[in-house]
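Hi everyone, sorry if this is the wrong subforum. Our group has a chain we'd like a structural model of before ordering constructs, and none of us has done structure prediction before. Sequence below.
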Amino acid sequence: MRDRPRQHRVPGLSAHGSDESGPSAEGVYALLRTSLLAGLAIAALLFPLAAMAGLSAKAGFNSIDTLSVAVTETDPPLTSYVYAADGETLVSLFYDEFRRHVDLDEVAPVMQQAMVSAEDSRFYTHNGVDYRGIVRAMVANNSSGGVQQGASTITMQYVRGALQLNAETIDEVIAATEQTAVRKLREARLAMAVEEQLTKDEILERYLNQAYFGHNAYGIFAAAQVYFSKHPSDLNLQESATLAGLVQAPSAYDPITSDQTQALARRNWVLDRMVDIDYLSHGDASQVRGLPIELDVSDPPNSCIGIEGTPSEFGFFCDYFRRWWREQDAFGATPAERERELRQGGYTIITTLDPELQTMANKHVNNAKSNESKLAHGAVVMEPGTGRVKALGLNRVFSYDQKHNGPHSNPSFDRKGNYPNTVNPVLGGGAEGGYQAGSTFKIFTMLAALDAGYPLDYNIHSPNRVATSFVSATTACGGRWCPKNGSAAMAGNRDMWSGFGMSVNTYFAQLIDRVGADKAVEMAERMGLQWRSEGDAYYASEERRSGWGPFTLGVSDVQPIEMTNVFNTLAADGLYCEPLPALRIIDPEGHDLDAASPRCHQELDADVARAATDAGRCVTETERKGAQCGPWGTSKVVGTLAGRPIAGKSGTTDNNRASWFLGYTPQLTVGAFMADPDYIFNPVGTGNTSTSKETVGKIFRDALKGEKVLPFTPPSRDIMYGD
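Answer:
Right subforum, don't worry. Here is the predicted structure as tokens:
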């Protein structure tokens, strides 16, 4: 994060506005009565510096020269641009003030001339203060009995805006903008000091990037985009004159929402001023004067809402990125400071989002069979070895407009639900809750067992129901936890291959009893899980985790992104990488920041991860040489659809309240789930238990089409058979 002021401009206090206009007829007579005052004002501008003591804009500045240095170094808030991984597809912008810096040579010369003509025709000849303008303004103001005109040059307007941007309190903003002689004197003296430190071109460049043009367009880049959908280097004469005319009073001369009468008059006035100072011939001005103002209005996206206010298919990924950014210490001390830096820091961010994968994920989650509106169906696509999130698909629209949503699915809530529009982080991010993931949690027990030295062929007789040593509140088995299998056909002698592939509850209930529930819970923490409910945190506490046997059947809440990353770690042979949505983060000076670098460490022994993968292949394959997968796998449909070896695990919860599948190849990891995020007690129904499996299989099929089938690295014989 750059060490510089970042302050919102106070609404209603404009930093800009031209004071350039001709004196009234009554002002001629008043000149005689105001000449003395004018002389005193001019003298004050040239008065020794000591006379200006106490007039600095900020506490701590002891001289105009010192303050002028701060003014010349002021950086206005800049828009951050967020792109997909291709560096071209725009995901969104983040800004409080839509502004992007451009160098002066990137601004069409005719635009530069129009601005000088409209705001300060003697810009290139004065020293920051236009003395003729001071006299003219005082004549006009005296005749009107109030402040009707000023004498602000472009340099003075730049100074005024810089003082506002550097302001730390409302009082300092008021001091920079109030209509008083003291403020004008300070502003004028600062302008002269700035002119000694910067060239005219440098001042004009800063002013063009600072000026407000209306419709949240700050600076000439934003103005050219908002009004004409083009780069400022491409502005023509009529467009330049229109924009230059806006700065004095953007609302009064607004050509978008008004009938353009005043905007046309103001534009033509600018053309006349350009003729007066020989920037433009009478003939060229006449050709444009009769033309209408032809706009090509753009509404730049902001904060993950799509272009021109339309919902974006990238919205949920964009919001995940924003939540990730708020957690990064590199961008500030608090989440609020970090978000302000994103909205004002002018970063260029290349995210990990793959537009093609995103389109695939969205298509498949929205086309899934039995995809009832109340149920959320989502998919996460990640890259092994980096943790990069490639796509986040969800059968929802990222939008704040929820007035047409249906009723909430929780019968006790009398309000709109979150379908089809929502901004809730359904797929994860931040400290929000999650969903039970059922038998996918068996992976933690198996990893804990492998890590403790149990081999894949570790055999346990697994009846249809088994009593364990874990205490239970129920009395069905004498106060002991005694789960049963999903079907009687699962019973028999099982090892990790068949127990995992067939998802045999009684095998894993006995395995966690022997390995220790505390070891399985610890393994989940090592793999990135957080405890997202009071109940989960209670049972996962150090003093209670050893008695949490049901943990192996997925009774804890988990977010889809973090659970997908568990299997992403296995795909990378035990290399754990934090989920990462950023590929590159470039600051306004063009420097790549380290915050986008993958954060990885070897969490599991590679042989342990490979052994888990070997068992995971039994889930999607029924026959495989060298492995005892059992008579069936729970998710053969995934391997069939993908057309290549897939390792992974399915999961359903009690009463089918959620269904999951998490799978991986050496190149890609895909996780999918279905649940009701508004009311988790709503079942997905037996017809949807295979939906997540089919979605994952189809994403693999399409995403890896034409890609080489990479083999999984087999585990050692020792870890398979305990030799």
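For your construct planning: The chain is about 40% helix and 10% strand. Residues 553 and 645 are 25 Å apart (CA to CA).
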